[in-house]
Amino acid sequence: MKNKHTLFRLALSAALLGLAAGAAKATDLSLSSWVDSVKVTGDFRLRFENLHYRQNGIDYDRERYRLRLGVELPMPDGFTFKSRFTNVNSQVSANQTMNGIVAQDSFGVDRAYVEWKAPAFVKVEGGRMAQPLWTQYTSDVLWDDNYNPQGLGENLESPVVGPVKFFANGLQMVDSSNKLTNRSQFTFSEQVGAEVRLPLESRLKIGFANHNWVNVSTIGVTPSNTGISGMAEGVNQDGNRELAGNTATNALLANHFRVDELTAQLSFWVMKLPVTAEGTYIRNVGAMEKYSPKYNTGFEHGIIIGKASAKNTFEAAYFVKNVGADATVAATTDADFGDNGGTNRKGRIYWVAYNPQDFLQFKVKFYTTATRDTNAGGYATAIPKTSNGATNVGGTGQEKDVNRFQLDMSIKF
C-alpha cells in the first residue's frame, strides 16, 4: 500500500508541477535551465460493461474507470522526456473495476521514456514508450492500443518524393529477463512502408513488418527442473497453445513466433465526411511443422465513417476479425475481443461515438465473438488454452462465445 501511495504522490506532484509552471511565470517554482516548458495532459473515462456468455446465458455487469496523466518536458537539441501515469491493471489494460467499498486502487507508471528527434527525419526513443511502429485500429490483432513496449524504438521518414512518402520503423523490446538461465526474452520488429497522396485529398498507406519473438517458446524445456519460466505476463490472455504448467501470469508457450504483418489504410472523403477503410493480415511464419493445422494466420478489416474528435462530430465503425490460436503472441493483443482477449477468436465489432464538446465524448461499442478453433484433437500436450485454467479445449470452447457491450463517457484535458 505504501508503494501505491508513493506512486500516486509522484504522479500528482508531476501534474501540479506542470499546472503551476503553465499558470504563471512569477512563482517560487524553479525548473532546470535546460527544460524549455512543461506540458500536462490527461483523460478520464467512465464505462459500463456487460459480458453475455451465449452458451449458458450468463450475464456479467461491471462498472469501470480509467485515469491517465501525462507530463512532457521538452529540452534542447531535440530531446524530450515523456511520462504517463495511470491506474495500471495489466500490460494491455488500464481499466479499474469498481469493486470493494474499502478497496484502494493502484496508480503506476504507464510510460517513461526519452525521445530524441534528429534534424534529418529521424526519431529515437528509449524506455517504456508509446508504440514506435505505425499502427491503426486493425493493428490490435497484434498490439492492444494500451500496450506500451519497453526497450528501444526508431523512426525514419523520408521527405515527400512526388506524391509518395516512405517510412521505416524499428522496435527492440524487452519481454522478460532471466539471470539464472540466460534465456531472456526479446522481440525485434522491423517495419517499412509508404504513403501515397491520391486525387481528391485521398491517401493510401501501406506497411509491411516482421516481428521476431526470441526465446518465448518453452518447447523442449521442463520448467520444473530447469527454472526456465514462460512469458512473464501481467495477464495470460487466451488462445496460444501452451504446455502443461502454465498459470494465470506465466504462459508456457508451445510454439515459435516470427510474425509477418501487412497493414493498409485508404482514407478519403464522402460528401464532407472522412472515411477510412483499413485492414491487417498476419501470418506466423515461424510456426512449427509438428502442429497440423497450424492455426497461424489472422486478419482484421473494416471501415470508419466520420471522426469523433471536435465539437459536434461523430463516427460509426464496423470491423471483422479472425485470429488463429498461434497467429501471434496472445499477451499483447486486443484485451476486449472475447472475455479474456488474446487469439483463437473470430467475430465482429461495431461502435458509434459522438462529441458534444471538444473535451467530451460518448461512445457505444459492441463485440460479438466466438472461439475459432474448438477442435483441438491431435495436439498432445500443446493445445489452445482458455482462461478457465484448462489446457485442453477439445471441442468445449463454446463456453467462450461471448458478446461484450460497452458504454463510455470520456473527457480529455
Describe the structure.
With 413 residues, the chain is mainly β. The protein has a single domain, classed as Porin, CATH 2.40.160. It contains two helices and 21 strands. It has a 16-stranded antiparallel barrel with strand order 1-2-3-5-6-7-8-9-10-14-15-16-17-18-19-21. The longest helix has 22 residues, at 2-23. It is globular, with a radius of gyration of 22 Å. The chain starts with a helix and ends with a strand.
CATH topology: Porin
Question: Which CATH-level-2 architecture?
Answer: Beta Barrel
Q: Could you tell me the number of beta strands?
A: 21
In helices, the fraction of residues equals under 10%
- Domain module tally: 1
> What is the overall pLDDT average?
82
Which structural category fits the helices and strands?
Answer: mainly beta
Give the full name of the CATH homologous superfamily.
Answer: Porin
Distance between the termini: 28 Å
Q: Beta-strand level of the residues, as a percent range?
A: over 45%
* Biggest sheet descriptor: 16 strands, antiparallel, barrel
Which value, in Å, is the CA radius of gyration? 22 Å
pLDDT < 50 stretches:
1-27, 222-229, 376-398
CATH class: Mainly Beta
Overall 3D shape: globular
Given the structure, what is the number of helices? 2
The side-by-side strand order for the widest beta sheet comes to 1-2-3-5-6-7-8-9-10-14-15-16-17-18-19-21
Order of helices and strands: HEEEEEEEEEEHEEEEEEEEEEE
